[in-house]
Fold:
Amino acid sequence: MKKISCLLVFLFLVNYSLNVVYAHPGRTDSNGGHTCRTNCEKWGLKYGEYHFHNGGGTSGSSSNNTNTSNNVSSTNKPAYTQRDVDQGRSEGKEEGYVDGYNRNEQSSRADKGNEGYKIGYKDGYTAGYAEGLKKIKDEDIEAGREVGNMEGKEAAVNGEENETTNNDGQSVDWNIAYKDAFNNAFKAEKLKIESKDKGYENGYSLKELNYPKNISSDEELKKIYKSQYETGKNERTKEEEEKNYELGFDKGYNLSNESIKEMDERFIGSYYNGVKEGEQKRKVEMKEEGYIGAFTYIIYEEPTHLETDQLIEWYKQGFDSNTIAAEIKDTAYKNGYESSNYYIPEEFKVNDQSIALYDKLFEEGQEDQRDETIKSFVKMGSVGVGLVGLSAGGLYINKRRKKKKEVI
Structure:
């Protein structure tokens, strides 16, 4: 008796556990089965797997169903298999994806296959359609956003208004994304442009760096602002340095004693650099003029066109520094006096003025040499030369001198 009781308890537990495993939620179709959608793994099934409940499709009594639990009657098996369902789902998903991506009207009814294929097709088509539709929407949104971002920036840079129009050739998703991106890009670019302009203006004014309120909280805008601040400051600094240098240069070049007006202490150094270089340039010019003057004047003469003692001093320094002119003055006359044929040493061919000085002194030497020769000839003349001869000789010499003087 005890053994029989244990056996009954065992059979009861087995039957109960089987009913629990296959008693998950969900209505069954006419074949006693359905497709799993909820907590499939909990019941030992795959998501979307078609299966039967309690021998699905059998027509026996409740007691018969209990005895044949989880077994399909061999005389009432469905006319399709899980493979048919899976095939329909796969093909339905592919076709649904294409229709969804192309935004076609949704149609999940299969034109072929058995009941299991059609069940799977409908399920797969619905999932594929949703996936394809999401894909094309995501692509349109991305494309609209990209174009809107680009054109929004361009509009801001070109000074255009923040206005958009609907593109009838694109989807609703594309147009919504385009308008949002355009608006955001336009505003962002306007702020960047404002940051550039105000930063440059602040820097060009040579004021301290100061961020406006609408920029101070954005690191990117602050970076743009500061960069343009430095650009404006550097440009203005360069301009002021050049301007003050020119003022100083003019003052130095003209040896002006005029006092300077109030000046920004940041540019005083540039001013005095200009003064120094202006004076130096004028000094070089005066010495060069004096150097050339040494070729023009045999003896130094103080120039009357120079206004200050400093200019005259620099001129004389240049005059005295011309050693070539001094050497020409020492040797050209002697060369002319001692030689009947003209020649000039190469070292005296410095410029036109040096050659002209040499030629002048050389010719003077030759003239004096000719005069001396004539005088010697007269003294060494024969005592027997008559007064007529002397008169004739004297007449020749006078004519020679007169002719030479006219040539000069």
Q: What stands out?
A: The first helix runs from residue 2 to 21. Confidence is low (pLDDT under 50) at residues 13-23, 55-75, 382-408. The beta strands are 33-35, 50-52.
